[in-house]
Design brief:
The protein has 322 residues and is mainly α. It contains 9 helices and no strands.
C-alpha cells in the first residue's frame, strides 16, 4: 500500500514549515502595539525580547511534539508492517507447497485483512494530522470528507474478507483495496502540498505587514531630517521580494489545487514545490533586506530591531496564526 511513502510526505511537510524565517512570528498579544515600541525604554525592550523568545520556544515545542507524534506513529506502523510481511511470507510459502486451496485461502484472508487494517490505521494518522495543521477550513473539510470516505470503503472491503471463500474473491478484494489506496494517496499529496503553501502564505502576509511599518518609520525619519538615501532602495527591494513571493505562492497554490488524480499528482506536486522554493528564496532575500534596513536605521540613531518591527506588524487571523 506504500504507506511508508505517506510518512515521508508528513516529514517533508513538518520540516519545510519549521525552517521558515522565525523572526517574523507575530509577537502581538492579540492587540496592536504602537510605534512607541520602537522607542521604548530598555525595560520595555527587554519585555518585548522575552515575548519573542516565548513565541520562538512555543514554535520549537510544537514542532518537537509533532515530531514525537510522528516517530510514535512510525514505530507503530513498522511493527504492524512487520506482522504483515510475516503473514505474507507464510502465504507465499504455502503456495510453494502442496497446501490445499482451503489453507491458502485462509492464509490469504489473514494477509488481506492485515493489509486493510494497516491502511485504516494510516488514514487515522493522516486525519489526526489534518486536524492540527494550518490550512483553509473549507479545504480541511473537503480533505477530511475524502479521508472519511476512503476509510469507510476500506472498512467495507474488510467486511468482505470475512465472507470470502475463494482465492478469486480475495484477489478481487485486494484489487479493490489497492484502487482505494491509490486514490487516497492523491488526497494525501494534495493535503501536504496545500498545508505547506498555506504556511508560506502566512509568512508572506506577516512580512507584507512590515512594509507599512517601514513606510511609517521612513516618514518619521524624514520628518526628523534624517538621511534615508541608503534605506529607501532597500525598502523598495524588500517590497519587490515580498511581491515576488506572493506571486510564486499563488502560482504554487494553483498547481496544488489542481491535483485530482494519481496521474497528475506527482507532476503537479513537483512543479508546485519547485515554485515554492522560488517563493522561499524571495522571502530569504526580503529578510536580508530587512536586516540591512535595520542596520542602516541604527546608523541614523534609530532605536529599532527586526523583532520590534515584527511586533509592530498587524496580527494575521487567528486561524493563520495557529
Amino acid at each position: 500500500m506504500k504507506a511508508k511513502k505517506l510518512f515521508a510526505l508528513f516529514v517533508m511537510a513538518l520540516f519545510i514549515v519549521s525552517v521558515m524565517p522565525i523572526a517574523f512570528a507575530d509577537t502581538s498579544d492579540n492587540t496592536s502595539t504602537t510605534n512607541a515600541t520602537a522607542t521604548a525604554a530598555p525595560a520595555a525592550r527587554g519585555a518585548l525580547k522575552e515575548r519573542v523568545q516565548e513565541k520562538v520556544q512555543a514554535v520549537k515545542d510544537k514542532f518537537a511534539a509533532a515530531k514525537q507524534s510522528y516517530l510514535e506513529a512510525k514505530s507503530s506502523y513498522l511493527a504492524k508492517r512487520g506482522d504483515l510481511i510475516n503473514e505474507r511470507q507464510k502465504f507465499v510459502n504455502l503456495r510453494a507447497t502442496n497446501a490445499s486451496d482451503d489453507q491458502v485461502t485462509a492464509q490469504g484472508k489473514i494477509v488481506v485483512d492485515k493489509a486493510i487494517d494497516n491502511g485504516i490505521a494510516n488514514l487515522g494518522i493522516v486525519q489526526k494530522w489534518l486536524d492540527k495543521i494550518n490550512i483553509d477550513e473549507t479545504e480541511r473539510a473537503t480533505l477530511s470528507a475524502q479521508l472519511d470516505d476512503a476509510t469507510s470503503k476500506l472498512q467495507a472491503e474488510k467486511a468482505k474478507v470475512d465472507a470470502a471463500t475463494t482465492k478469486s474473491e480475495l484477489k478481487d478484494i485486494a484489487n479493490e483495496t489497492r484502487d482505494i489506496w491509490t486514490n487516497t494517496r492523491v488526497t494525501v499529496k494534495r493535503l501536504v502540498s496545500i498545508a505547506t503553501s498555506d504556511r508560506i502564505d502566512n509568512i508572506v502576509q506577516r512580512m507584507d505587514a512590515l512594509s507599512a511599518k517601514l513606510d511609517a518609520r521612513l516618514a518619521k525619519m524624514n520628518g526628523a531630517g534624517k538621511d534615508t538615501s541608503k534605506i529607501d532602495p532597500l525598502v523598495a527591494d524588500f517590497k519587490s521580494n515580498i511581491a515576488l513571493a506572493q506571486e510564486k505562492y499563488a502560482s504554487a497554490k494553483e498547481k496544488f489545487s489542481s491535483i485530482t488524480t494519481i496521474d497528475n499528482a506527482n507532476t503537479l506536486m513537483k512543479e508546485g514545490n519547485d515554485i515554492l522554493k522560488e517563493a522561499n528564496s524571495a522571502l530569504k532575500a526580503a529578510h536580508t533586506d530587512l536586516v540591512n534596513i535595520v542596520k542602516e536605521m541604527k546608523q541614523q540613531k534609530e532605536d529599532v530591531s527586526v523583532d520590534s518591527l515584527a511586533a509592530e506588524s498587524a496580527p494575521v487571523s487567528d486561524a493563520a496564526a495557529q
